[in-house]
């Protein structure tokens, strides 16, 4: 009796080996291409963004892992007011004390709902924690050294987004829009240090990859996009806001690193770049996928578009009030 052998599947090692062979064969041409001035400029901008952002990314990953491992969602539940309307801003401000990246905030919000926290407050925390925590605000101050108002505007716009969405859910949200499994208590397996290591590893891999992609896109845009385009976009203020909002959704950058990408787009006005920083931590492609998998597709289909609109409006309002129309 013979057994049928399964064909070998292509994996990352095979891809790496193939790329290595191609690089060796085309080494001379690759060397000539890398010597081009345009490529050097792209490489310089790319490295500068990554070097500036990496310390804050690493710190954010460690803080997020520590929160996941050593801070119970019950701690937040105990300090929340009983009235859902009053609990929403308190949960939003809790993002200052219990920070976390976008990926970590989704399971934390799920655990909060499972432990009986009002859905509106849990969703407000979900949106606020990645955007108003000290690591993100310090990174924003470093990325915009000549514009201290960007820190205040980002905090105000992000906190307003979290509170408005929390109150909106309290008023118009329905229990059946969230999957029933979310309301059952979730239990994390393993010891605390194992949870810390796994959370930090997961966040570092996912956020680090997104940082590389975002930095590369920003570097390429800084070289390949004609100056006349960015000047024209700067003159069309509303269009610039919409473009930066959509770019935040598509790039899906980690909130600890997105300020450095926004700062590199210096030809654009401050308010569109602020909208980029407010929208990104609230709604992007990876968050929509995480929310759909955690809370259900029906929830994500309603919550994500509403969050996008609210984040854009709150970002513009915070920018105009704090920075002026520039």
From TrEMBL:
GO terms for cellular component: plasma membrane. It is found in: Cell membrane. Belongs to the UPF0718 family. PANTHER family: UPF0718 PROTEIN YCGR. Its main location: membrane. It comes from the Bacteria. Signal peptide: none annotated. The chain crosses the membrane at residues 45-71, 120-144, 150-169, 204-225, 237-254, 261-283, 303-325. It holds the Pfam family ArsP_1. It comes from Pseudonocardia dioxanivorans (strain ATCC 55486 / DSM 44775 / JCM 13855 / CB1190). Keywords: Cell membrane, Membrane, Transmembrane, Transmembrane helix. The keyword Nucleotide-binding does not apply. It is a multi-pass membrane protein. This is Permease.
């Amino acid at each position: 009796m013979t057994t049928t052998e399964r064909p070998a599947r292509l994996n990352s090692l095979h891809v790496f080996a193939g790329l290595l062979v191609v690089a060796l064969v085309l080494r001379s041409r690759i060397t000539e291409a890398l010597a081009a001035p345009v490529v050097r400029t792209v490489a310089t901008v790319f490295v500068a963004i990554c070097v500036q952002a990496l310390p804050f990314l690493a710190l954010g990953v460690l803080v997020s892992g520590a929160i996941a491992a050593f801070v119970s969602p019950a701690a937040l539940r105990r300090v929340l007011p009983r009235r859902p309307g009053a609990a929403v801003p308190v949960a939003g401000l809790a993002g200052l004390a219990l920070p976390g990246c976008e990926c970590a905030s989704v399971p934390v919000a799920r655990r909060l709902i499972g432990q009986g926290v009002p859905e509106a407050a849990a969703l407000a925390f979900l949106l606020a924690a990645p955007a108003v925590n000290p690591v993100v605000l310090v990174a924003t101050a470093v990325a915009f050294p000549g514009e201290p108002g960007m820190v205040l505007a980002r905090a105000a716009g992000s906190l307003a987004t979290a509170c408005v969405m929390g109150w909106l859910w309290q008023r118009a949200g329905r229990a059946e829009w969230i999957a029933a499994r979310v309301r059952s208590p979730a239990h994390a397996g393993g010891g605390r240090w194992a949870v810390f290591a796994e959370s930090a590893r997961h966040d570092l891999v996912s956020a680090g990859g997104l940082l590389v992609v975002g930095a590369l896109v920003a570097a390429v845009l800084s070289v390949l996009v004609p100056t006349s385009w960015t000047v024209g976009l700067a003159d069309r203020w509303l269009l610039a806001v919409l473009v930066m909002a959509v770019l935040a959704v598509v790039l899906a950058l980690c909130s600890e690193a997105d300020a450095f990408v926004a700062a590199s787009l210096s030809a654009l006005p401050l308010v569109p770049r602020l909208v980029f920083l407010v929208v990104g931590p609230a709604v992007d492609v990876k968050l929509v996928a995480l929310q759909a998998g955690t809370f259900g597709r029906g929830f994500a289909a309603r919550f994500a578009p509403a969050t996008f609109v609210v984040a854009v409006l709150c970002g513009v309002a915070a920018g105009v009030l704090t920075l002026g129309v520039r």
